[in-house]
C-alpha cells in the first residue's frame, strides 16, 4: 500500500490500436466516391478514425494509401465480379456472367456507384506513379478477357481466324461504360439491359 506521502503514478497503457483493415476500407470508399485529388488528408483521418501521424506511420502517405486502397478494392470486390468467370464452360458464358455480376456490383445500395478502378482519374491529375498503376490494372481486365477468348479458340468454341483483342476491347469497354453510367444514376435493370444488348453482338463479333 502506498503511504500518504507517496504519489500515485498513473499506469501507462499501450497506445490504442486501430483496425487497419477497417481503416483501409473506409479510405477505399472515400477515394472511390470522391477520387484521389478531391479527398483530403483531414477527410481520410476522419473516415478512418485516426490522426494524421498515425495515417503516415501506418500507410506512408496519401499516395501509398491510395495504392493500398486500390489493392483492397480488388481483393474485396474483384471476386464479386469475376466469381463465375473461370467456372463458365464457354467464353460467351464467362463474359455474360462477368457483365451481369458487374451490373449488380456497380449499383449496390450503400456503396459508391461504379468501379473504383474504371473511374480513377489520379493518373490524369499529375501523379505519374498512380497513372501507371491504374493503367496496368485496367490492362489486366483486358488481358483476362483476351486469354479466355484465346482458350475458346483453342477449344473450338470460336473460329481460329478470330482476332480476340478487338472483341476483348469491346466487352471491356461495355463494362467501363456501365461503370460510368452507374455513377450517373443508371439502375441495375438499366445495366442488365445493356448486357443483353452487348451479348447480342457476340455472333457478329465472333462469327459463332
Write the layout of secondary structure elements.
Layout: H1 20-34, H2 41-48, H3 52-59, H4 62-82, H5 91-105, H6 116-119, H7 128-154, H8 164-183, H9 188-200, H10 202-206
Give the tags.
mainly alpha; 208 residues; disordered N terminus
Give an account of the 3D structure:
The chain has 208 residues and is mainly alpha-helical. Helices cover 65% and strands 0% of the residues. α1 packs across α2 and α7 packs across α8. Mean pLDDT is 91; it is low at 1-16.
Brief description of this entry?
The protein has about 210 residues and is mainly alpha-helical. The chain contains ten helices and no strands.
The largest β sheet comes out as: none
Mean pLDDT: 91
Q: What is the radius of gyration?
A: 23 Å
Summarize the amount of helix as a percent range. 55-70%
Number of strands: 0
DSSP strand (E) fraction?
under 5%
Number of helices: 10
| Structural classification | mainly alpha
Q: Provide the succession of SSEs.
A: HHHHHHHHHH
Described by the principal axes of the CA atoms, the overall outline is elongated
For the termini, the CA-CA separation is 88 Å
Unreliable residue stretches: 1-16
